[in-house]
Write a structure and sequence with these properties.
Elements lengths: L5 H12 L11 E5 L4 E3 L4 E6 L8 E7 L2 E7 L3 E4 L8 E9 L5 E3 L3 E6 L5 E4 L3 E2 L5 E6 L7 E7 L6 E3 L8 E4 L3 E9 L4 E2 L6 E3 L1 E3 L3 E6 L4 E3 L3 E8 L7 E7 L2 E6 L3 E5 L6 E9 L2 E6 L5 E6 L5 E4 L3 E2 L5 E6 L7 E7 L6 E3 L8 E4 L3 E9 L4 E2 L6 E3 L1 E3 L3 E6 L5 E2 L3 E8 L7 E7 L2 E6 L3 E5 L6 E9 L2 E6 L5 E3 L1 E2 L1 H29 L3 H21 L6 H5 L3 H15 L16 H9 L1
Parallel strand pairs: 2-9, 11-19, 19-27, 21-28, 30-38, 38-46, 40-48
Antiparallel strand pairs: 1-3, 3-6, 4-5, 4-7, 7-8, 7-9, 10-12, 12-15, 13-14, 13-16, 16-17, 16-18, 20-22, 22-25, 23-24, 23-26, 26-27, 26-28, 29-31, 31-34, 32-33, 32-35, 35-36, 35-37, 39-41, 41-44, 42-43, 42-45, 45-46, 45-47
Length: 588
């Protein structure tokens, strides 16, 4: 460089420090217009090699892809490329060079992807909406940006028509009509269009409740009657509908309004449901209604049902009559017993579906409705047997725990709360029915076979179909008369033995005159007996029983011997008779 002229040195310095009017060496920046990372076959792209500032008259530019020259040097820093194809994908960068120098500066790389022409995708939000609501539709071309969207709708018998044509992006729209929809994307200049989305059949389902009403509102119809079914849409009263009707799953009729009037026959029986569509939008419909049951038959029969037949005395039983499943009926009631004919009662202008009765018996009912009156078949005859819930128990007179053969006893069947009712009662002993009585009392003479557990049940005397419950049992024990003798003689013999022991005690204490007098008295009594009766009779009682006088005399003699005048004999002898008296009793 020693031979280099000053002019050349200055030029080299300027080449180093100056480029396009810059005082510093700055690398160019490659930008892409439009600024999309992904392009599609047929689109155009512009690359700009930007120096940010300064003149570019002294610089030239070129475009590289994957390190290879894609566009050669040009004075314009903008490179327009297109239409693109998939092979154009790669890492792009630009370089600038000063015209007087072979050196160049290059930008960083920018990736660009070129793909085949994309297809738009259409998605729908919930299509179940209330009447007056809307469905949200969205369109997208992924994964790229810069799109505006076009929307098209048709029906089964029309062609696609574009709508929502404005300058907005239109990525999401709301629609109030069903139909067949599609969309596509548009971007760039000149416009580049994506493939259209697949057609999407949007069927709007109105969430409003739908139900069927009928006139008349009888659940049971009979052949020849006329009925009107109405498909009611809550909140859709002002909408004009066309409706279709199903019976037991099959579509059987279509109407241009929500009402359907027809005459019924037995084949009309089934479950009916309806669905309505907006008259100007066949793709918008209501839900199917819940089913309503229509039953058509020949002349119906009434059914009689009874409530609880266990009631207190004075209570009542509820009877109900129905002709199911139908309505509009008034009911007639009839009663009889086993030996009488049916008699109508409760003949008034009321419905009489339920009545209360206080008597049992055989009941039936029937229904009538309409004008002229139409009568159902009578119900089956229903035997109502009333069971009174009042407590029942047995009492007896006399209330001895043990009675003996031949004695009389009265058993009474007591009904709590039924004291004023006239009863006929039946009696059981040990499980077997043994007696009927025309009142609650039963009097009879007992025998040993009468022993057992007794219970009773009563029926109202004027209503053989009303009875009490069975009472609890009461035990009656009957014994023979020989048992009575043993029961009486046992205590008596015991009492006599006690007296004999007392007298023997006194006899042992007696001495001398007492014993001699006892012997003399005994001899005298024996003679008297032999003379009077001609036979001998002796007993321990006669040998040891002194007279009261003898006992008293002996007691005084003993006191004198002891010298105890102050001593007092306070013993009281009651029921002790003289020997003569005993002798007379024995003879008796």
């Amino acid at each position: 460089m020693g031979n280099t002229s000053p002019r050349v040195l200055v030029s080299l310095l300027l080449n180093t420090l100056l480029c396009c009017g810059q005082t510093l060496v700055i690398d160019p920046v490659l930008t892409v217009e439009p600024n999309w990372s992904t392009f599609y076959v047929g689109e155009f792209v512009t690359f700009i090699c930007d120096m940010n500032e300064g003149r570019n008259t002294d610089c030239q530019y070129r475009l590289l892809r994957n390190g290879q020259e894609f566009d050669r040097f040009q004075s314009d820093k903008r490179f327009r490329v297109g239409p693109l194809y998939t092979g154009d994908s790669g890492e792009f960068q630009c370089c600038r060079q000063w015209r007087v120098s072979p050196d160049e500066n290059c930008s960083k790389t920018v990736p660009v992807t070129v793909s085949d022409k994309p297809r738009a995708k259409l998605a729908a939000g919930s299509t179940t909406i209330p009447i007056g609501g809307s469905v949200t539709l969205s369109c997208s071309v992924e994964p790229s940006a810069g799109w505006k969207y076009r929307w098209f709708r048709r029906t089964s018998d029309s062609s696609f028509v574009e709508f929502s044509r404005n300058n907005e992006e239109n990525r999401e729209i709301t629609v109030t009509q069903g139909g067949i929809y599609k969309c596509d994307g548009e971007r760039g200049n000149p416009s580049f269009y994506s493939h259209s989305s697949l057609e999407n059949n949007i069927e709007i389902m109105f969430s409003n409740k739908v139900f069927v009403t009928r006139r008349p509102i009888w659940p049971q119809m009979f052949s020849g009657e006329s009925i009107t079914l109405t498909c009611e849409v809550q909140g859709g009263e002002t909408t004009e509908w066309t409706c279709e009707w199903r019976r037991s799953g099959s579509i059987i009729h279509k109407t241009d309004s929500k009402d359907w009037t027809f005459n019924v026959s037995e084949s009309s029986s089934g479950n009916y449901m309806c669905q309505c569509r907006s008259r100007d939008d066949w793709y918008s419909s209501t839900q199917w209604s819940e089913t309503i049951r229509l039953s058509v038959s020949n002349k119906p029969g009434a059914k009689l049902a009874a409530g609880s037949t266990t009631i207190p005395v004075g209570g009542s039983v509820t009877l109900s009559c129905s002709v199911e499943p139908s309505a509009g009926w008034k009911y007639r009631w009839f009663r009889r017993t086993s030996d009488t004919s049916f008699v109508e009662f409760n003949t008034n202008n009321e419905e009489n579906r339920e009545i209360t009765v206080t008597q049992g018996g055989i009941y039936k009912c029937d229904g009538k409705r309409g004008n002229p009156s139409f009568y159902s078949h009578s119900s089956h005859e229903n035997i109502i047997e009333i069971m009174f819930s009042n407590k029942v128990f047995v009492t007896r007179q006399p209330n001895w725990p043990l009675v003996f053969s031949g004695e009389s006893i009265t058993l009474t069947c007591e009904v709590q709360g039924g004291e004023t009712t006239e009863w006929t009662c039946e009696w059981r002993r040990s499980g077997s029915i043994i007696q009927w009585t025309d009142s609650k009392d039963w009097t009879f003479n007992v025998s040993e076979s009468s022993s057992g557990n007794y219970m009773c049940q009563c029926r109202s005397r004027d209503d053989w179909y009303s009875s009490t419950q069975w009472s609890e049992t009461i035990t009656v024990t009957v014994s023979s008369s020989s048992h009575l003798v043993l029961l009486i003689s046992g205590p008596v013999v015991g009492f006599i033995l006690i007296i004999l022991l007392v007298l023997l005690c006194f006899c042992r204490r007696s001495k001398g005159l007492f014993c001699s007098r006892c012997k003399a008295s005994e001899s005298s009594r024996n003679d008297g007996v032999n003379q009077a009766g001609g036979h001998e009779y002796s007993s321990p009682l006669q040998e040891v029983t002194p007279t009261y006088a003898e006992i008293n005399h002996q007691a005084r003699a003993n006191r004198k011997k002891k010298g105890s005048p102050a001593a007092t004999d306070k013993t009281v002898y009651s029921g002790i008779r003289s020997g003569a008296a005993l002798h007379v009793d024995s003879a008796m």
